[in-house]
Structures are given as structure tokens and as C-alpha cells.
């Protein structure tokens, strides 16, 4: 008769344990690579909307420029939020990512209604 119960091995990985932080870095970098070209064109369009000048100068569109800045901020902040949410598996980061998406949708609706 054994007085001590059998213990689980110390090196056993659980399915709900934390992931390697490199997954978050990889997700962030891949997200930024995917969004690099659209972000460049959006930056160009935003500068054009704020100034009103591309090939010829017209009236500036501050609402469109502000919407472009919000979209650019979401493109920069979205991949790190997603990487952090996947790695840490905490509800807070998923809520932050959802809030980022909701802000983008809200700005899109407001600009579309103008």
C-alpha cells in the first residue's frame, strides 16, 4: 500500500495553458504584412482628403480624413490586439479587439451617412 498518491508528470502541458509569446509576435507581423498595402493606399487617400489636393485642388474633406485616420489606427492596433488575445486567452483582449472593430464600423456608418 502506497501512502502517497501518484502525481502527474511536471512537464505535462495542459490544453488550456499559456501559449508561447512568439505566436503573438508571428500573428502581429503577419497581420501587419497583410495590411501594409491597404494601409499605404489609405494613408495616401487620407492625406488627399485632408488637403483637398491630388491632381487638382478641391475643397478638403475633414470628415473623410478623420475617418481615414481612425481606419489607419485600427489597422495598426488590430494585429497586436489579436496576437495578444490569442496568446493570453483572456477575455479582456478579445473585448478590446471587438471595441476596435466596433469603432471602425461606427466611423464607417457615420461617414457613409454624410
Element order, helices and strands? HHH
Quick one: biggest sheet?
none
Low-confidence stretches: none
Count all strands and give the number: 0
Radius of gyration, whole Å = 22 Å
Task: Note down, in words, how this protein is organized.
The chain is mainly alpha-helical and 114 residues long. Helices cover 71% and strands 0% of the residues. It starts with 20 loop residues before the first helix and ends with a helix. 12% of the residues are buried. The mean pLDDT is 85.
Gist?
With 114 residues, the protein is an all-alpha fold. The protein is 71% helix and 0% strand. The chain contains three helices and no strands.
Q: Which short descriptors sum up this protein?
A:
114 residues; mainly alpha; 71% helix
Task: Provide the fold topology.
Layout: H1 21-51, H2 62-88, H3 91-113
